[in-house]
Structure formats: structure tokens, C-alpha cells
Recover the amino acids of this structure.
């Protein structure tokens, strides 16, 4: 095994301009040596028997500790063997704790104008271009905008880059990279979602004025945060135009175009191709589960509400999943694994997809799949196709699913879990189509008109907007259950 030379940087760090300007050298050194900020606490993952089924799940917070570097020390370290290539590293001491960064990671993350286009923000080289034996030497530098940074000079850089190329990373960015890795590896997930029954959502429901939604980014951020937390939001004073739902959705981002169109009308008509376009009772369900990526948000704007009946009601499928887990972990596990098929099979359209009722986030190998890191629920009885797996009499799987689905449906439709509301003209409801089930009571189409204008928004679009606003108003953003502070 060969030896390699690394750079070990002791970082106790960030801005110290005032100290440098006003403190004599010896006093400054004494002052710097006295500063200490320990690393953030990392909680161990609880054993399955210790875990509580309640959400939200706790997460480790990021605590920056800005201090200037005290010294740079060059040392030798053994290379860890990876196949036939030794792993080259740069060692950096962050918050008094030595950390090693793979040179491949440091090179791959370079954001200089030669590596990342400053306008498109797109990468100008491939990870596969990096030599297996890449190594470099580093030093500490101070940037007027980003504070203390490491600067790496590469000995055998990516082909096409000359000897003048340097890679710089701020110490705050490296600290965030370490914290994010711990978050993602540790099994904990940051989760703001609140599970609700009728009383909880009645108490915490949010109404937003249309003009505020359209004109105030801070109001929009508060509304989207609430929508992410509860999965249900209402707007009032919406103009009575068919394009109003487009305007509302466009504040989040691009609308999802489906075979129903960019927008669609929910109104009674003869020989309807969808049960929603009839006056019949429509039970709790989600939309478009027969597609590969069902919409994340559904918007329904009430243009006409002049018929008796037709009340909408909603149920939190995550809350019911938690209750099911409390009652029967076996039923919960069945709904996480048994494949249910959905379809939309007509003359001009034929959609078909199979998915379990409950989807959870991926877990480390030592984790149980029933610790309620809920991701999505799939429940749409009106659009369910015949089962295609485990239908033989030699397997009890289908009967187990029947028992589990029966228990789950009782929780979903329990009176104390349903929030009922009749949308008035000029009101719009937005809900999480992968979490909150919606339904409608029957109405008499002969005694008036009921007309809703609908639209969909995908999950990528919603979370993109939410992260942009999170960065602006809170200085952090969330992805894959890990909190990432903004690093300029």
C-alpha cells in the first residue's frame, strides 16, 4: 500500500475581518485559540421497538460556527485501497474534528467558470473524465465574498485543463456537505407534516385571499408551507373566470397537461367518460393513479355552486395509515407490499399501472419498513383494475390484502377523520393528491348548475417553488429529508 501526501487544514473558522483589523498579532492569536464551537449533535437511529409512530420525524439541525483558520499543516497519510487504485484524500479539520474528503469529490464539485457555465449553471465536464489517480495539494485562502476557502492545485487534472486550473470550496460549503451526508446516511428524516383528523384540520385550516396569493411572495411561501404540512389549502375571492385556476397554479409553476387537457371541467353531462362528470356520489379517491407519475397537487375552482348537495369532503390518508399501524402492523405491511392495479381503459386512451397502497421512503438495511416515513398513498377504488398478481387459491396474499384494505377504509371514512365543506362560487381548494383523499356527495343536477374548473401541478414543480421561497425567507432548503442551509 502506497503512501500519499495530504493537506491537513485546522479550521476554526469563517469571517474575522474585524479581529484582523483591530487586534494585535499576539492578542489575536490568544483570542482565536480561545474560540470553540463543537460539532452539531448527531442522534443515533432508534431501534424499531423504541420508535414512535407519530410524525413529524426529528432531524439534526445545522449549526454554523464561523471562525478563521489557525494554521495549515502538511502531513502524510496512508491511502486506502480501492480495487487497484489508492484513494487520494485531502484532510480538513472542521470544528476541531478532522475530516477527509476524497479528491474525486473535491474535483467533481468544482464550480469555477471553466467547470460550470456561469449562465446556464450546467456542468462542463463529466465525472467519468476525472482520472482514477487524481491527487492535489491544497492551501487555505480568504475570499472577500465567501470567507475562508480551501484551494486545490491538481497534479493530474481532467484532460483539457491546464496547470493553472484551481478548485475552491468554502469551509461553510464543506461543512454543509458533511452534515448532509450524515443526515442522508443516518436514517432520520426532516418532516414538517402534521397528520390530521377533522378537529385538527378544522382548527388549523388556512384560507388565503386570491389577491394576496397572486401578489405577495411571503404570503405564497406561508401558503405553500401550510400546503406541504397539511396537504389542504383554500383560496377565497377568486375571480369568476375560467382562466383563474391557471393563474393560481402558475404562481407555483407549470401546469401538468394530461389527456383531460391543461385544465378540465367537472360538471354533469350524459354518457360521461368519468364518474366525476355525473351527479352520482363519488367516494374517497386520488386522481390518475393509472399514470406513471400521478399529479402532486389538484386544484378545483368553483365557478357555479347552484345545486343542492355536492359537498366535498377530504380525509388524510397518512393519518389513517398511522392509525392502521397502531392497530395492526401486519395490515400496514400488507398495504406496503401488495400490488394493486389501476387503469383507464377506453377506446382512445389506455393507461395501466400497478403500485402498493402505501409507499414509504427508502431505508438503511437495518431499518424496519413500518417506521412510518410515509412517502405516498395510492387509493382510488373507482379506477381499480382486476388484480394481476397473487390471485391463485394457493396463496393467502389476496385475502390478506382484503382484510387490510377493509381495515384501512374504515379508518379513512370514519366520521371523525372527514373534513366536509361545500365550495362556494369564487373559492378554490388545493390539495395533495398523493396524500389527501377527496370525495363528493351526490347532487341534483336538475335544480341548478355545479361547475368546477380543475388543474394539476406535478411534485417537481411544487417542491422547486417551495425550495426557492425557503431559501429566500428562511436561509435553508429541504430535499430527501435533509435540511441544507444556504451557502453563498
Amino acid at each position: 500500500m502506497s503512501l500519499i501526501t495530504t493537506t491537513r487544514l485546522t479550521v476554526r473558522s469563517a469571517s474575522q475581518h474585524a479581529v484582523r483589523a483591530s487586534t494585535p498579532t499576539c492578542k489575536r492569536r490568544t483570542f482565536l485559540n480561545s474560540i470553540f464551537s463543537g460539532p452539531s449533535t448527531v442522534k443515533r437511529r432508534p431501534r424499531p421497538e423504541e420508535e414512535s409512530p407519530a410524525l413529524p420525524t426529528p432531524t439534526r439541525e445545522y449549526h454554523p460556527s464561523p471562525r478563521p483558520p489557525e494554521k495549515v499543516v502538511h502531513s502524510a497519510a496512508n491511502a486506502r485501497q480501492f480495487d487497484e487504485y489508492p484513494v487520494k484524500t485531502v484532510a480538513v479539520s472542521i470544528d476541531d474534528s478532522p475530516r477527509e474528503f476524497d479528491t474525486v469529490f473535491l474535483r467533481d464539485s468544482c464550480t469555477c467558470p471553466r467547470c460550470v457555465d456561469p449562465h446556464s449553471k450546467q456542468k462542463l465536464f463529466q465525472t467519468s473524465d476525472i482520472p482514477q489517480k487524481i491527487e492535489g495539494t491544497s492551501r487555505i485562502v480568504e475570499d472577500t465574498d465567501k470567507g475562508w476557502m480551501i484551494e486545490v492545485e491538481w497534479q493530474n487534472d481532467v484532460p483539457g485543463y491546464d496547470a493553472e486550473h484551481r478548485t475552491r470550496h468554502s469551509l461553510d460549503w464543506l461543512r454543509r456537505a458533511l452534515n448532509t451526508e450524515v443526515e442522508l446516511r443516518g436514517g432520520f428524516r426532516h418532516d414538517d407534516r402534521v397528520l390530521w383528523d377533522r378537529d385538527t384540520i378544522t382548527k388549523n385550516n388556512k384560507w388565503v385571499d386570491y389577491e394576496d396569493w397572486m401578489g405577495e411572495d411571503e404570503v405564497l411561501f406561508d401558503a405553500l408551507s401550510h400546503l406541504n404540512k397539511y396537504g389542504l389549502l383554500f383560496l377565497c375571492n377568486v375571480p369568476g373566470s375560467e382562466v383563474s385556476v391557471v393563474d393560481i397554479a402558475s404562481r407555483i409553476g407549470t401546469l401538468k397537461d394530461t389527456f383531460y387537457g391543461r385544465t378540465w371541467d367537472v360538471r354533469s353531462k350524459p354518457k360521461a367518460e368519468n364518474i366525476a362528470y355525473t351527479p352520482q356520489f363519488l367516494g374517497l379517491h386520488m386522481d390518475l393513479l393509472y399514470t406513471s407519475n400521478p399529479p402532486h397537487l389538484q386544484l378545483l375552482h368553483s365557478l357555479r355552486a347552484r345545486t343542492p348537495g355536492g359537498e366535498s369532503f377530504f380525509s388524510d390518508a397518512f393519518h389513517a395509515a398511522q392509525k392502521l399501524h397502531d392497530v395492526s402492523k401486519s395490515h400496514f405491511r400488507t398495504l406496503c407490499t401488495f400490488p394493486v392495479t389501476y387503469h383507464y381503459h377506453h377506446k382512445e386512451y389506455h393507461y395501466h399501472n400497478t403500485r402498493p397502497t402505501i409507499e414509504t421512503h427508502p431505508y438503511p438495511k437495518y431499518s424496519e419498513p413500518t417506521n412510518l416515513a410515509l412517502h405516498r398513498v395510492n387509493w382510488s377504488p373507482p379506477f381499480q383494475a382486476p388484480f394481476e398478481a397473487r390471485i391463485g387459491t394457493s396463496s393467502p396474499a389476496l385475502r390478506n390484502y382484503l382484510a387490510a384494505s377493509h381495515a384501512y377504509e374504515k379508518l379513512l371514512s370514519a366520521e371523525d377523520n372527514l373534513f366536509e365543506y361545500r365550495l362556494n362560487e369564487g373559492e378554490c381548494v388545493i390539495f395533495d393528491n398523493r396524500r389527501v383523499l377527496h370525495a363528493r356527495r351526490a347532487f341534483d343536477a336538475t335544480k341548478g348548475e355545479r361547475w368546477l374548473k380543475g388543474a394539476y401541478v406535478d411534485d417537481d414543480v411544487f417542491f422547486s417553488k417551495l425550495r426557492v421561497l425557503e431559501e429566500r425567507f428562511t436561509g435553508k432548503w429541504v430535499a430527501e429529508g435533509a435540511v441544507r442551509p444556504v451557502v453563498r
Q: What stands out?
A: The mean pLDDT is 83.
